Amino acid sequence: MKTEKSRLKLASRNGSNLYQSTHPNQVVMAFTDKATAFEGNMLAKTIAGKAVINSLISQRLMSLLNSMGFATHFQKRLNMQEHAVTPCDPIPISLVVHNYAAGEFAAGLGVETGIALPEPIVEFRHHLSADSFTIVPEQLITAFDWADPEEVEDMLAIAKRVNDIVSGYFHAFHFTLAELHLHFGRHQTFIDDGEFEVEESELMLIDQLSADTCRLWDQLDNNSPIGKEAALVAGNLDGYQQLVDRLGLMPGRTGGQNS
After folding, report:
1. Concatenated DSSP letters of 142-208
2. Which of 150, 214, 228, 236 has the lowest tally of Cβ within 10 angstroms?
3. How far is CA 28 from CA 5, 11, 25, 56, 86, in A?
4. Where are the domains of the chain?
5. What is the pLDDT along the chain (259 residues), one digit of tens a residue?
6. 190 near 85, Cβ under 8 Å?
7. Looking at residue 223, what DSSP letter applies?
8. How deeply is 183 buried, as exposed, middle or buried, from its count of CB atoms within 10 A (0-12, 13-18, 19+)?
9. Distance from C-alpha of 56 to C-alpha of 60, rounded to nearest angstrom
């Protein structure tokens, strides 16, 4: 793994950095130990070891989606905390799927945390920066040309399907997916039709699917927080470690099961 100073940094995201790759049609996504809240804001601390755990979880979930025909930027894992991914232009909108009332969503509505919603509620967030966002309606997304109507429709449909799949995956290990954060981007390709070079754009699921983008509760412990939410409260890696142990994604550790 090259040092950060020896390669060109392309972008920073919550919990990861993007670097230039020596391979065509590929960039390197490096997971970091920097802590972020679910609401997106960066926290002035790190949780040593979470980069490796998030890399493993994201690899498993992105590979699962790829195998089911979803377009994601994930290509392969390069090492314990880096992935090779397809370069995409990020859409400045994230979709948050709420299955239960939790966090700022519950607080803002004045309802009790843990209430199951009748159906998943999808929230659109426009990101002003890496750690700042505004909740927006669909009309504003198209009005300001952040995404076109077809892209909005596709992102909404994909978010609901991915939520079902990821919920099912974690449920098999006795975890409840209370909330899911998704990011999308456009992968641009140029096709020579013999007379002109035509640009085509493909919508892809980007960023990571990990303990940092999934609010998870432990069904074996009265739906108490596990993963990121538990780690932020404790200030250590335990919440992440308990999660990855049960998922069985770290060879050589006991307590997990393979899937």
Report:
1. HHTTSS-HHHHHHHHHHHHHHHHHHHHHHHTTTEEEEEEEEEEEEEEEEEE-SSSEEEEEEEEEES-
2. 150
3. 14, 11, 11, 15, 9
4. 4-88+239-247, 89-216
5. 555 567 899 998 888 999 999 998 999 999 999 887 776 555 657 899 999 999 999 999 999 999 999 999 999 999 999 999 999 999 999 999 999 999 888 888 899 999 999 999 999 999 877 667 899 999 999 999 999 999 999 999 999 999 999 999 999 999 999 999 999 999 998 776 666 666 789 999 999 999 999 999 999 999 999 999 888 888 889 999 999 999 999 866 544 443 3
6. no
7. T
8. buried
9. 6
Token reading at 174: 């006795």
Q: CB atoms < 10 A from the CB of 73, how many?
A: 25
Quickly count: other Cβ atoms within 10 Å of residue 48's Cβ.
Answer: 9
User: Per CATH, the architecture of 4-88+239-247 is what?
Assistant: 2-Layer Sandwich (3.30)
Q: Decide if 14 contacts 212 (C-beta within 8 A).
A: yes
CB 12 within 8 A of CB 29: no
Q: What is the architecture of the domain spanning 89-216?
A: 2-Layer Sandwich (3.30)
C-alpha 106/C-alpha 109 separation (Å) is: 5
Residue 241 and residue 64: Cα distance in Å, rounded? 21
CB contact at 8 A, 166 and 65:
no
Would you state the structure tokens that stand for residue 94, as one six-digit string? 């994230």
